[in-house]
């Protein structure tokens, strides 16, 4: 997808007439307004169980020299869940950490654990799922991806640019100077 912005050169020429700190603040606010649109769509797209992942979707801005950018990012409690939901999980084994598993070496080598030993492991860190003891290892079947961040950008890119333009136009009205109207043309 290609996004073309019309009105951009006029806006840049107008911003050159402003003090640099005012220009940066207006552009930064506009970028945040556009990112907010994407953030709200991502929150609407996310599958909800506890709401922790939904609350972890945040926005921010970044400055690299003269270049400003905004982003939608996962941060805080629950953010670790994002990549697992967005990209899915392939089937895998989950096991208790090695240091939590007792090692029984005999003169004949490592001894197989008896049922009594396995039951003792419950207190030392065996896996318990849904209140049921499942032993020192379990097979996780994985799950399909449920993207929520990438589709949010695809769904709301035009609206985000429009929100950015509206914010800049609203903030930038000094006398006869007015910000040009920004519009977006997409090509696929």
Description of the molecule:
The radius of gyration is 26 Å and the shape is elongated. Strand 5 and strand 6 form a beta hairpin. The longest helix is centred in the first third of the chain and has 26 residues, at 20-45. It has 188 residues and is of the alpha+beta class. The chain has helices at 8-15, 20-45, 52-55, 81-87, 115-124, 149-171, and strands at 2-6, 57-64, 67-74, 92-95, 105-106, 109-110, 127-129, 132-135, 137-140, 173-174, 177-178, 183-187. The strands form six sheets. The protein has a two-stranded antiparallel ribbon with strand order 1-12. It has six helices and twelve strands. Helix 2 (20-45) packs antiparallel against helix 6. It starts with a strand and ends with a strand. 16% of the residues are buried. It folds into two domains: 2-85 and 144-187, no CATH class; 92-140, no CATH class.
Q: How do the strands and helices of this protein lay out in sequence?
A:
Blueprint: E1 2-6, H1 8-15, H2 20-45, H3 52-55, E2 57-64, E3 67-74, H4 81-87, E4 92-95, E5 105-106, E6 109-110, H5 115-124, E7 127-129, E8 132-135, E9 137-140, H6 149-171, E10 173-174, E11 177-178, E12 183-187
Antiparallel strand pairs: 1-12, 2-3, 4-9, 5-6, 7-8, 10-11
